[in-house]
Amino acid sequence: MAIQLVIVYPILYFAVIRGNPFTYWFRNSPAWITAWGTASSAGTMPVTLKCLQARGVPDTIAKFAIPLGTLVNMDGTAIYLPITVTFLAATQGQVITPGQYVVVFLTSTLASIGTTPIPSASLVLIIMIANSINVQVTGMYGVITAIDWFMDRFRTMVNVTGDLYGAIIVTKITGIRDPIVDADGTIIETIDQDENGKRNSQV
């Protein structure tokens, strides 16, 4: 998860935006701090939207990307599940074959997309994925359950960070702007919003 957070996301951001990814990440600290505290992507959604608005992401993108990302963008969970299942197998002396690794990776990816954005939702998924390759869920699963409340906070932080980076990247690629309308609904001007939250009006 640390690699995803400090290497993969920043590289994608820099490749598209050509800006400092860590500056952007720290400016959005209220979102990922809230994610760490609540362990819920859904509970963090209002803060995430507010941060993106402050960064200049158009509402058109933010209000579509964040609810969608909250449901399906579970990068932290997708990384955590295969590691946990591999750990369970190792503690029982079971060797996972290459074919079983493929099954674990595929089921982890699909399960993470379908999981709910609430605390400790992945505990059930661990059992499902372990059973798919005949790994017994025994004693060490209790250890995983005991520390999941803590690990879940890091998974959620990674998930929300992915939403933040994804929204600004989509904004850059699409070039979508928020319009300004008058009381009659007539568009007066559009607002060109960049990744730093600066606004450039075009009448």
UniProtKB/TrEMBL annotation:
Main localization category: membrane
Membrane-spanning ranges: none
Membrane topology: Multi-pass membrane protein
Keyword line: Membrane, Symport, Transmembrane, Transmembrane helix, Transport
GO cellular component entries: plasma membrane
KW Phosphoprotein (keyword) present: no
Pfam families linked: SDF
Keyword Heme: no
UniProt-recorded Gene Ontology molecular function terms: glutamate:sodium symporter activity; L-glutamate transmembrane transporter activity; neutral L-amino acid transmembrane transporter activity
Protein location: Membrane
Domain of life: Eukaryota
Family under the similarity heading: Belongs to the dicarboxylate/amino acid:cation symporter (DAACS) (TC 2.A.23) family.
Name of the protein described by the UniProt record: Amino acid transporter
Organism lineage: Eukaryota, Fungi, Dikarya, Ascomycota, Pezizomycotina
